[in-house]
Amino acid sequence: MKVKEVADLTGISVRTLHHYDEIGLLVPDGTTEAGYRDYSERNLELLQQILFFRELGFTLKKIKEIVTSKSFDRLEALERHRERLNEKRSQLEQLLRTVEQTIRHAKGEVTMTNEEKFKGFDFGSNPYEQEARERWGDKAVDESNAKMEKLKQDGKMQAFQDEMNELYRKLAAVRHDDPSSEASQEAIGQWFTLLNQMGSYSLEAFKGLGQIYVDDARFTRNIDQFGEGLALFMRDAMAYYSDSRLG
């Protein structure tokens, strides 16, 4: 299958498939006489595995480590996917029951205990914060948390979130342009300024954050809600923005 056919089949953008090829995660088994990528049945099976891992929150770097390992067993991996997805489904089913019961409670049909109101929620850990501390240290994360808390106390959090979503939409509108274009760089410059309202990002950290947008499936999924391929575009635009200023 050609890259456009694979994109149409899976719903993944051509740009994302090209990226997987570039990082050695999903390299097509063949090429046409014209030099176009040609995906085999084996490639499609591997792509399915990649998407299962992404759905479960694995980074692209970790996925590559797993699927290229000599000990990788496709059937064993599928069984693990099933186990984790069943766990995820159980939590979602409990949340649905909590929502349904809360609706009935709001209508006066049943009475809920305080414990019942919070069944299904899991706030045992914050993986984003934990990973941020590992990457940039406690001081940077603590400063960011303090800025966010001040926004809440000043009643400016909603306005900040609205500004962020509007900027996401602006970036999505130019995501098919060259990341180094004037319009792209103007928008990504606004993103750099906005992020520094809630943290302290050097140009190196800004570039690194852009890479995380692509490597971490959770970030990619959230960002691409504004437009397929936006995370990849932002990664490239952020890298150009940083490199052009670092010299």
From TrEMBL:
One of its GO terms (molecular function) is DNA-binding transcription factor activity. CDD domains: HTH_TipAL-Mta. This is MerR family transcriptional regulator. Residues 1-69 form the HTH merR-type domain. Keywords: Activator, Coiled coil, DNA-binding, Transcription, Transcription regulation. Gene3D superfamilies: 1.10.1660.10, Antibiotic binding domain of TipA-like multidrug resistance regulators (1.10.490.50). Residues 75-109 form a coiled coil. InterPro entries: DNA-bd_dom_put_sf, MerR-type_HTH_dom, MerR_fam, TipA-like_antibiotic-bd, TipAS_dom. SMART domains: HTH_MERR. It comes from the Bacteria.
